[in-house]
Amino acid sequence: MIQKQKPELVATAANVAEVERMFLAGADAVSIGHERFALRLPGSFELDDLAEAKKIAQSHGGKVYVVVNALLHHDEVSDLQDYLKELAALQADAIVFGDPAVLMTARQAAPGIPLHWNTETTSTNYRTVNYWAAKGATRAILARELSLEAVLEIKRNTAIEVQAQVHGMTCIFHSKRELVSNYMRHQGKDPVQELHKGERNLFLKEDNRDEQQYPIFEDRHGTNIMSAEDICMLEHLPTMMQGGIDVFKIEGILKPVSYNETVVSIYRQAIDRLAEDPEAGIEAQWLQQLSQIQDKNRPLGTGFYFKQQIY
């Protein structure tokens, strides 16, 4: 499949200032939200912040996608409806959802906003993608556990947009339980004092994998354990673009803004170059730049994209 149009480049941001910096670096859209309704955000955006982010995006010809991917209980749906109405008033460019309650509520509260389906681990085949497309989803955000071959197969067999992560860490475990706080209480420590708000510098290490560190943090939805490596698919962008992948996502959680700026800038240059000339290839200096800014404790890899699938 030949790419019909240039893929969209989506980045994350922790605050309004970072939104501006991501667009200046070359992002086409930012993925942001509020911790009340979203999982694993670099930062939480109040409604006023979202409105400011929308203004910034418009000034750059970009878009704002609001993440609403938390698993919601029945008693939270009424608050969700009010929130989605506010997003409609702000003219958010899309709502990223996983829980079906968001889709059902959006039909009434925000009927004009596109819906991006993202269930993290279950968006793994084109039949499921097509099911949610029939329910109103306009984009499928694919699971990070897929091989590149499977990603391309999904794109060949679905009519809606397909988004794949090309850089950054991924979540490998989530629990609604407060595992970090419980561990600290077991040690006789006060988790309120130990876990400063916004501070995410804790790691897990396995005895048989001394060199690997797994970032772990809590948000209001529970505990998250992240991958020990960062995905880097820069070298494989030509294949993904030739395969027609519509959207590339750079996950910037737990990274300094300067790092994310450089990554977005490099991928921007690569996408523009390959869109103009599919045979142009990737510049060696781009890979060198990424290696220079990468944390020495976090190797770059290709995630599951080239691992053998076992069914």
Give the overall pLDDT as a whole number: 92
Q: What radius of gyration results from the CA coordinates?
A: 19 Å
Helix content range = 25-40%
Structural classification: alpha/beta
State the strand order across the main sheet. Answer: 1-2-3-4-5-6-7-13
What's the main sheet like?
Answer: 8 strands, parallel, barrel
Q: What count of helical segments does DSSP give? A: 11
Keywords:
311 residues; alpha/beta; four-stranded antiparallel beta sheet; globular
Describe the structure.
With 311 residues, the protein is of the alpha/beta class. It is 36% helix and 23% strand. The protein has helices at 16-25, 47-59, 77-90, 100-109, 126-134, 148-156, 179-186, 191-194, 237-242, 257-276, 284-293; strands at residues 8-12, 29-33, 63-68, 94-97, 115-117, 137-141, 161-168, 171-175, 202-206, 209-219, 222-226, 230-232, 247-250, 300-301. Strand 6 (137-141), helix 6 and strand 7 form a beta-alpha-beta unit. 38% of the residues are buried.
List the helices and strands and how they pair.
Elements: E1 8-12, H1 16-25, E2 29-33, H2 47-59, E3 63-68, H3 77-90, E4 94-97, H4 100-109, E5 115-117, H5 126-134, E6 137-141, H6 148-156, E7 161-168, E8 171-175, H7 179-186, H8 191-194, E9 202-206, E10 209-219, E11 222-226, E12 230-232, H9 237-242, E13 247-250, H10 257-276, H11 284-293, E14 300-301
Concise structural overview:
This protein is an alpha/beta fold and 311 residues long. The protein has helices at 16-25, 47-59, 77-90, 100-109, 126-134, 148-156, 179-186, 191-194, 237-242, 257-276, 284-293, and strands spanning 8-12, 29-33, 63-68, 94-97, 115-117, 137-141, 161-168, 171-175, 202-206, 209-219, 222-226, 230-232, 247-250, 300-301.
